[in-house]
Task: structure prediction
Amino acid sequence: MARSLYICYFGVGEPLVQTQVIHYLRELVKDGHEISLVTFEPRPEELQGDKQVEMEKELAEKGIDWHWLKYHKRFSAIATAYDVFRGALFVRKMIRQKNLDILHGRVHVPTLMGALGRKISRRNPKLLFDIRGFFPEEYTDAGIWPEGGLLYRSAKRIERWLMRESDGFVVLTEKARQLLFAGSDKTGTDDAGRPVAMIPCCVDLARFAKDHAEPRTEIRQRLGINDRTVIAYVGSFGGWYLSEEMFDFLRVAREQDSKSFALILTQRDKDRVIAKLGESGYTDGDFIVESIQPSQIPEYLRAADIALSFIKECYSKLGASPTKIAEYLACGVPIIANRGVGDIDQLLEEDGVGVLLDGFDRACYINSLKEIEGLSRDNGTARVCIRSASHRFDLLTVGGPRYRELYKRLLEFE
Result:
């Protein structure tokens, strides 16, 4: 079995690491792989003493050997370059100490660390480029980098080099696979014979099923929702998330149904979200805005009737697989989403688990609310949603097996 180092440019406590990275690594451990994980911690002072020991023990019990380096933020580009340098040196040290077979980079910056660390090592482990999304385009589409600017052009040059250097690839959507590796859906490889896998953002359906033990009616009573129509959203605001459009939608929903209730689960900007809900006609008692632990998401989402996913339609989002989509479906909640994001269009239409917006105006919002009304829990939609999640996003039957198979093929690739 392989000895692998997974390189992640996030802190170990980030929701993405807790709900995605660690779960995937546990699935790889099942095949006997020896997994090491390095994260970059933005608040290392929080890991002093017992906290670090507890985290090391918790991950060791899952079969994961955890290491961390400090994340630097000030003077963004320079800080990232410095972290890449330190990460490459760490990779070289781990290659020597662990005799690694695979360097697994989660998106561009960690994969660059792996590629550089391998260059300065005597051993030549395989490099897996877990592309996830289109990183340079995401930064321009979110307005962080100017389109065509120096940082974007530099990132694209690095991306092209990583595409040449890597021995295998992961993408999140079929659309991304066709854009980057046309024909690999049939062959499983790119033109050079390197393995390519499409692995969407998955969730542990077993955990969601366990959290279905408490009846939905009891959850709604406990949250003070009772018989109201609950519209849920999980995630961030701003950037490529269409926040203003979402609040406009909620305003129209409130106008159409005075019992509409907003359930917003977000890690930041709570005060701003509450203020925007007030502007949209929601008063105290008409909403819940909470920052919760990832493990609590099923408990809250099971109270919802409708879930929202409004994301900017742009090139970078063709490669996106929002985790919220899998979470919504795993909780049995139908979705209203806009077109042009990853494989969501095909998913909602083929599986009958939601409604696609034709535009961002009042008429489109009203029409989508009427359509979603037909997907009520009374006609078995919850079961259809859960079945869709099981078929497309189950960690145990989709994500885990695909990663294990990819590792096997990567080790066989010459």
